[in-house]
Amino acid sequence: MTLEKLTALAAEVVATTQRRLPPDIRALARAVPVHYEAWPDEELIAQGFEPDILGLFSGDAHGSEFAHDNPSPPQIILYVENLWDFAEGHVPTFREEVRVTYLHELGHYLGWDEEELAARGLD
Questions:
Q1: Domains and CATH numbers, the chain
Q2: How far are the Cα atoms of 22, 34, 65, 105, 110 from residue 60, in angstroms, in the given order?
Q3: Digit-coded pLDDT (tens) for 24-36
Q4: Direct distance between the N- and C-terminal alpha carbons of the chain, in angstroms, rounded to an integer
């Protein structure tokens, strides 16, 4: 599948996932930009991330924007080629993994740590 098609499919899954969120969380979720990239770049891998990373939240978590002098805007990045590889080219698995990965990264925005994400089935 082409990068363009994977990106469109992932964006559709994210939009559907957002619509299904509780209203208070939905508003927060829609305020966080989601970017779609094929793979992580060399700089990210040099920082210690695995080349097969599925998604990443960067920036300041919700409620911490004013915790320091140089706030970083929040964003979620989904690595669609890695998600496609993880799904082994199976569209339903890809859709489900995009959903789970998006919710996992959104959880980081909400301030949830790995333990809290696991408790919610988002690990």
A1: 3-119 (3.30.2010.20)
A2: 22, 15, 6, 12, 10
A3: 889 989 999 999 9
A4: 26
